[in-house]
Amino acid sequence: MHNSFVQEWGIDPGKEGTINSATVKYTDFLLATASGKVEGVKGLGKLATPFERTKVAAYTLGAMTPCMRLYSFLGKELQAILGPEGNGHPYKNWIDSYSSESFQASALQTEDLLDKLSVSLTGEELDIIEKLYHQALKLEIEFFLAQPIAQTTLAPLTKGHNPEEDRLVIFSDFDLTCTVVDSSAILAEIAIVTAPKSDVVQPETQIVRMSSADLRNTWGLLSGQYTEEYEQCIESIMPSAKVEFNYEALCKALEQLSDFEKRANSRVIDSEVLKGLNLEDVKRAGERLILQDGCTGFFQKIVKNENLNTNVHVLSYCWCGDLIRSAFSSGMLLPCENL
């Protein structure tokens, strides 16, 4: 089966090549287990009695079952993503094989056989099977992590990214996704710090602003109301019990969340707490904004990759594109026109 797959990918299965070390670790682990060499277990090498042979068979299945179940799961998941329009996908036959009913049945049969062989085992021997199962799954994960990635980027599963024909569009949230703190709170703090004192007469030529004390009180009320209504909104849209995925219900929930955000934003605008902010103060605050670990590296890879034809859109409800542009430009992450 695997020979036919690799031939489709232009690889000669008869040609000698370097075996991935992660593959060797897993195959050596299986061979050792099948021959009775199990870590922490003595006296299995001779397999003198039927019971000992049954025990080794159970241990071997304990080491094999994770592979069967994992590939069965991956096949089904990838098949669901691929959909009926995936005929041109290079891994279609691989996905079809591991998502097939026959392979699903084989995985289930392996698990059933393991259950039957385990009936006569002691609690200590069942613990050994559990350890073998965990070790096998760990080696499988290491196998996948060790595979070379030809294109280190997020791309649709259905096809590769051709920069001459395709444009990759990436949307990213800003507040508390890219940033460590909520940027709207930063804008409010700038407004409070730069606001005039209550006993200072404001010149007629300047925009009339609330005093710093009034601003702080107003922002405190707005923040408290936002937190309370946010919790109520989330509680109302989250199902009380586990349910199947429902696209229509998700759309309705997102609409409710959007309506809540619009109301909260309108209250801030109507309150005029951000009225009269100095643009340079906002930009300086953006330059000092702390981004989440990994955010800088992620966007730098996108910007510096000449093989990508990419548009990046950063979303935020903080009402201030200059703050966002300053935050990214300070780290040389993105050209400002992408934000």
Automatic annotation (TrEMBL):
CDD domains: TenA_C_AtTH2-like (cd19368). InterPro entries: Haem_Oase-like_multi-hlx, Thiaminase-2/PQQC, Thiamine_Salvage_TenA. One of its GO terms (cellular component) is cytosol. GO terms for biological process: thiamine metabolic process. Residues 56-144 form the Thiaminase-2/PQQC domain. It holds the Pfam family TENA_THI-4. PANTHER family: BIFUNCTIONAL TH2 PROTEIN (PTHR43198), SI:CH1073-67J19.1-RELATED (PTHR43198:SF2). This is Thiaminase-2/PQQC domain-containing protein. It comes from Salix viminalis (Common osier).
